[in-house]
Specification:
The chain is of the alpha/beta class. About 60% of the residues lie in helices and about 10% in strands. It is built from seven helices and four strands; from the N terminus they run ααααβαβαβαβ. It is elongated, with a radius of gyration of 22 Å.
Amino acid sequence: MGLFGFFSKEKKEKLDKGLQKTGESLLSKITRTVVGKSTVDDDILDNLEEILIGADVGVTTTLRIIERIQKRVAKDKYLGAGELNLILKEEVAALLEENHSNVVSDVIPENVKPYVIMVVGVNGVGKTTTIGKLAKQFKDAGKKVYLGAADTFRAAAVEQLVIWAERVGVTVIKQQSGADPASVAYDTIASAIKNQADVVLIDTAGR
C-alpha cells in the first residue's frame, strides 16, 4: 500500500477526479494561449506565467518554471501548443526531481546526528501521516530513521505509527497507552544515539 493507503477508496477517487479536472483545465488554458501563434514568444510566456500563478503554483516556482522554459525555447525554438505542453511537463518534472534530491541535504545539518524533528499540531491535521511520508523520504535518501510514538493519548495513535514504521521499514520506539510522552521522546533519542541513527521523528498529541 502506498503513501495514500489511509485514504478510503471513495476519497482517493474524489481526489484523483479533482486533480484530473485541474490538470485538464490547466492544459486547455495553455492551449488557448498559443492559438494563432506560430512561435512561443514573450506574450505566450507572460500568459503562461499568469496561468500558473492562477493555478496556485506559487510565484517563486512559477518564475523558475518560466525561466527554464525561456532557456529551452531560446535553444530549441519550439513551436506550437504541443511542444509547449511537452516542455512544461519536462521542466516541471526536472524541477521536482532537483528539489527531491536536495531536500535531505537542505534539512539535515551534516554536523548534527541524530537530527531530531518533533511534529506538533492540533488533532486531525495529519501529523502521523506526515511523519510516515517524511520517514520514507529520509530512508530513500539513505538515512537511518527512528520514530518516537509520543502521542500516548489519542486512541490507536501508537498503532498507526507502528503501521507506518512497518511499511517504510524503520524503527519505532513506543510505550503503553497513557505513558509519559516526554519519556517516550527521551527513550527514542537515546536509542537513536546508541544505534547511530541519522534522523528522529517524534509524533506528539494534538493538545
